[in-house]
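no rush on this but wanted to send it before i forget. theres a chain ive been looking at and ive put its sequence and its fold in token form underneath. please have a look and point out which stretches look like helix strand or loop to you. thanks a lot i owe you, the record is right below:
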Amino acid sequence: MLKNIRQLLPEGRPPHGFGYGKKAAKEAAYAAQQKRRREKRMVIAAGAASAAAFMTWTLWQNTALMLREISVTDDSIPEAFSGLRIAQISDFHNSVYGEENEKLVRLVKQSSPDLIVVTGDFIDSRRTDTKIAADLIDQIISVAPVYYVAGNHESRIPGEYRELKKSMKAEGVHILQNEAEYIEKGGEKIQIIGVNDPDFCADKTF
């Protein structure tokens, strides 16, 4: 009778309790272990891919040239400053966009700004080149008045930052280090404030 039952079952698939329980259990355990290993490899591969994608995105974010227009409406803005256009350059990291930064300069000019604000990380502490930053200032200072506030990268390289600051002052840049200036127009005025990055320490001379 046992022989007849086994003949009716697929080869290698005996019913539970007919003499192959231990072997089947071992095979099932091995298969489960292999499945877990495959899943683990998939998770590791997915993690590595995510890390690579994040690094690529971070690199692109720090070097990509993007233009975004934002309109601000507020009743407290004096009438004389209605329609004021401000071009903001942020996180430049002494990058180069075209020969002598012609692409960036062109965008700044096309925006027809009334003033330009450079808001931090104008140079990069990891690959510092103050000449690139200074040359850009030299090209945009004729477009509109330039106001500058430093970022955390400037705080890491005080010597190079002092060199850049000296160069920018010679060009007529308004450097605001925990300072404020008034801008007057049509008998009215607004205040522009520059606050140092928290990484600037009181015991450093900038």
